[in-house]
Specification:
Strand 4, helix 3 and strand 5 form a beta-alpha-beta unit. The protein is globular, with a radius of gyration of 21 Å. Strands 3-2-1-4-5-6-11 form a 7-stranded parallel sheet, with helices on both faces. Strands 7-10 form a two-stranded parallel sheet. The protein is α/β, with parallel strands linked by helices. The protein has 11 helices and 15 strands.
Amino acid sequence: MARLLVLGGSWFLGRTVVEDALAAGWEVTTFRRGQAGNDVPGVTLIRGDRTKSEDLNRLAAAGPWDAVVDTSSFVPRETLAIATALAPAVGRYVLISTVSVYEGWPVEPLTENSAVLECPSDAGPDFGYDGDPGPSTYGFGKAGCERAVAEVFGPDRTVLLRPGVILGPYEYVGRLPWWLHRVARGGRVLAPGQPSRSVQPVDVRDVSAFALHTAKADGPVGTFNVTASGGETMSDFLTACQRVTESDATFTWITDEDWLAAQGVAQWTELPLWRTYRGAWAVDSAKARKAGLTTRPLFDTATATWAWLRSGTGTVEHERASEQGIDPDKERTILDAWDAHERSRNFAR
């Protein structure tokens, strides 16, 4: 039986990886502090703190494992320490990174050959800076974590996965849950941008499946962008939310994005998934697809997420969820202003 170590394993992607690995017959160990989230039945639990060398040594002594899937690395020097401790006990290291490591995110279209932010492998949590629209200390930190794993494990034992937006059951950030609840409430819904704009959110179950594929001894190694193909649109996304919630909502598309931004709407949060920059949904994942990545339709993701939300199980309270969504009064005010703007423009014609 193949043995898998998961760093994290209680929230969203980590929990999905653990559940999927158990279902596929892996023997799974999780390493986490246990201060939040939920342990998955059937795993071997090792409690510990990645900032403490004695905990890392105790973890390594519990090996060996065929692979580790790391869903919880953010600080390079911590990742460097855990990679160093695990190197003799693990076959390969699968790090869940992010497209935020790219210098051009979210402004430019991206491939795995795009320039990555410079961050040393021993950097602390405050390395880098936050720009608008980018880069971010989060992106710098993830870039340093990538470097730490690659330095210790080398190219033949390192897998770097760079997802964009991940949606699906157990989501704690709250992007898709907010849209589902808003559309379910019905009425007139502010729909941002062009309905035909391509979007690339990827289902958490598809990221998990690809991570486990790369964790196998004969799986692919290297760096992979992990996004949906871009064959679906923002209209497809909102229509999926409407169908699964059986809502009578109607969508008012505000296609003048400069006008919408001028109303003081925070991109990415007040209207989740809306961002004006052309690179936000232009991430090439062809390499991952060739290596075995498959992604499901947005309707499937919305259906599973709505079922999870209605079940009331496995939810995790997180501060980021409070950032998602526009105030109803502000939404109505903007829609009224848009009506007036459109009347004025039509009159001028």
